[in-house]
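Consider this record:
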Amino acid sequence: MPNRRRPPAVVLRTHAVPAAVAAISLAAALASWQYVRAAVQAQEAARFRERATAGTDAIRDRMNAYVAMLRATRGFVEATGGEPDRIGFRAYVQSTELTRYYRGIQGLGWSRALLPGDLEAHVAAVRAQWDPGYRVWPEGERALYSSIVFLEPLDWRNRRAIGFDMFSEPVRRAAMERARDSGDVAASGPVELVQEAGSERQPGFLVYLPVYARAPRSLQERRELLRGWVYAPFRATDLLRSTLDDAPARTIGLAVYDGESETPDALLYDDGTAARGGALTTAHRLEVAGRTWTVRHTATAAFVSLTDRALPGLVLGVGAALTVLLFWITRSEVMARGRAEQDARRTAFLAAASQRLASDLDYRRTLPDVARLAAERVADACVGCVVEPTGPLWFAGHRDPARAEGWLAAAAAAGLDPEGRTGIAAALSTGQPHEVDHAPDRLPHFARSPAVAARLREERVEALLSVPLVVRGEPVGAVTLLSAHGPFDAHDRALAEDLARLLAAAVDTARLTWRAQDAVRVRDEFLSIASHELKTPLTSLALQSDSLRASAGRGDAEALVRKSEVIRRSVDRLTRLVASLLDLSRINAGRLELELEPVDLAEVARDVVARFEEEASRAACPLSLEAPEPVVGRWDRVRLDQVLTNLLGNAVKYGPGRPVEVRVRTDGDRALLSVRDHGIGISAADQRRIFERFERAVSRRHYGGFGLGLWIVREIVEVLGGTVRVESTPGAGSTFTVTLSRAPEAAATHRAGAATTSPPPTA
């Protein structure tokens, strides 16, 4: 600390420790090189798997789009009754803009299924309508023919396929039969399309979708009702190349095989990069229109970036450089010993401070002792304060007790600087440490209080460091260390912050303990009230039951009725008491449930007033209700009933012999419910307090109750998105007014954690 000079540094002359550190550092560098190399390889493998999966997904998505187009084409053909004409089919295909949105597809076609007896008529009809040169080929007798009637767009390649009987070729026929029998899409194996010509021939395949005369219900009907197939031919190289054109620059080779065996006969596509690939390769199985493809990805030499290749070597080089650097850094070990001693003194001080704070819960007694300890060990003086509800609590410490009293008197006389410019006030206002570092003759000019300035001048203070005491994110005080032996360094600031955390924890612990003690006191008081309130109706029940038995023995019917009424009222009172306790539990636990529905507040008021007629009559309280029209909103009917019951019960209880008026009305989009009595009234000082738990404006001895009714009213109203207020004059009565929003969205708003809202019933 500033007033405690550190011991001089001792030079370490042997190289044994630096050599050992260098050896360890070099071993760590080699281990890091090995780790980074393995990590780069793992990263490459993960990136390769991700890219390969993305490539497979791109092929799958493209083929799914083609299948969707085939399904749409089948819908078009079915809409024509299974006999489309050339103009309509061409217009439909042109509307799909195949070349723009479905790159890689060779076209969309319609192949008619023909029985031998229908072949001649079919050819004659097509020749007569639109193609005089039309014929079904190859020739020969077969049990079933198929003929490509349309294939759009009708370019020179597709024109070569018109009239071709795809059912005559085994590979195509297998796919067509599978489509016919399943009613779904089916892809063929590799074939050479009849559209191929010249030297640039490619493997191809076709995807078929059957069209029926009507919806078949069995395999037999699928074969009997077959009208033909809509289909799409594909040149495999064009298709897969167009799919991969959407990806960035290719660094992964691709080969696609039909089936699960990767043989030359099954090859659909090979971009030629696999031969230049590295060790990373993977194969995915892809389902395409009922047929399995094997998609093989292989990383090329360009897949691994130059940076990734160089990274392990770079790590090794940096590790070697660090080894040399650490060799020389270790020579300053003696200085580190000094810092270790400093840390030991810091730990000892904090331990002593912690022990004193733990010895007594009341920080008002322990803070001066900790301040004196700080002045003896880490600074020349220590001054601080804790902000209490009654004002700041000041404490001070100095190696000389008389000077400590002087600092305490000066700080108390100065108070807290309202502008918060320096010292404790600055730390409190900003919540951050505040440091002033000036010459002794200049520092007093920063103090607004003459008493504090005099103390600074007398003590020759050169620096002060104020740190806030922060409890749960809020500053509740501050502690200031003063030095007459130079400025504070980073070690001093860290120690001051540790001390502030200790003091803040002590303040927080004490306050939490005091609150817990208050809670225990409130609990004991509540249990006492609950015992009394529950005992009273139980005693009445016991007495009345004894009297009831006696009256029954005498056969006094009138007495039986009267005593039964007394018992019923006692039971009702017990029921209300238990309900209040249950509501207290639910509200505290955030489980007060709402059942929101359209409710007429006027109707609720009429029901409650009618229910209170007998009780009000016994108390000689004339009840009146003013509800001229329905007041409908989205609320909880049961909870509104509870609110009005509590308010009306209080009005009858505190205003016996005097009228009670209930009024329901609207004010724009708000509903207003008011209960007015002419009873004892409530003083202005009690009007806010009465809405808290276990609070009342009058003595429990005279009126009884838990003091929960108005608190429950406020909680329910606020959960429903409303407010409750009271206007009262002692001796003249009180008016409680509940304001609720009639808008559904406002009524459903409630405080987080206060309640759960059940969904409205559905029709």
About this structure: Residues 595 and 759 are 7 Å apart (CA to CA). The longest strand covers residues 277-288.
